[in-house]
Amino acid sequence: MKQLYTPRQKRYLSLVDGLLERFRDRAAENDANNAFPFQNYEDMRKAGLLNLSVPEELGGLGATLSEVIPVVERIATADPATALAVNMHFTPLAQWSAVWLKTKSPRLEGLLRQAADGELIWAAITSEVGSPNLMTDARTKAERVEGGFRLTGRKNFGTNSAVATHASTTARYDDPTHGPQLLMMKIDLKDPRVRVHNVWNMMGMRATQSNDIEYDGVFVPDEDVVNSFPVGHLDATVTETVFGSSQPAFGAVYVGIAVGALDWAKQQVRRRGLIDNPRAQDAIADAEILIESARALLYRHTLQFGTPEFYEEFDLQEIVAQSALVKHVCTDHAVKVFHRLIDVVGGAAYVKSLPFERMWRDVQAGLFMPVSSIAAHEFIAATSLGIELAPVHGSLRQ
Question: Which end of the chain, N or C, is less surrounded by CB atoms within 10 Å?
């Protein structure tokens, strides 16, 4: 259904709309070849989109989270893998831009100017095998050395690492004074001790090339450690800059996939002369209802998140639960959209040469991406019942 966008949202969407046909044309080949969409990134660079969430004062386009979300969704209608990959660049920069606008941190300013100059593309590499990736612990080890730390460990789901220059990552440091700490840090992916293991061969989201990343004694100087907090805690900085932004951005990817599938299904309805068919109409209506209810929650969150009132009303666990709820509803509804649309497209849903089958595979990834459905339920239920899941560390910026 039609959306009411602000003039600024329309401005940003106009930059991507001219690229969608090319993205759509390349999506099937990249999926079949298990190949990263480098051409799409070059197109986005030329259009200025890679600067989308960098403040205008620092040379970017100045899009806020609520203005990034429609762009991510729109890209996903044409190529879900490109949307998910570039989201790992857009969203962290949007998080840090919001912090920079309040703090004017020189360190953040330097990073954001690098992005504006095209010298930096970001990835968030925190996932590990056997870990729920809730940013409370890590299996990667940090050893204290002169001037910083050395990292040893292996991460998986390194989305956007194929093109990224730098990444945020996590490691556990057993501090002799303060006990086990989780370190959040910036790493240079060109470091020769960063090794990429090309193991990505998945059912869906194949073109993201989210390969494993191994740290074999990677040195991280003290100035690139951006946060440290006790293992097992919910941290205020993580809550503000990761959960509150990444969860709706993930949700936008999967809502976009559902929108793309619905648009294609409506083409089939018209082509087959089924516009007046009650069964087709019922499935189309259900799909629209699922998408619009997910969007309503998504846009409510992005408009409220980060406001002083939001921080005053909700504690850390409540913010994580709210954020997880948004992502869960978006991904759950997106999968349900495909189930309903099968009644419209029939056997075409199973044809490898048609886009519905690829999008159907891609949408399944939303169910286990963090915060996973089971973890979201745990946070939502515990928060509703007044159960504390973990102690908190720090306080939110006012």
Answer: C
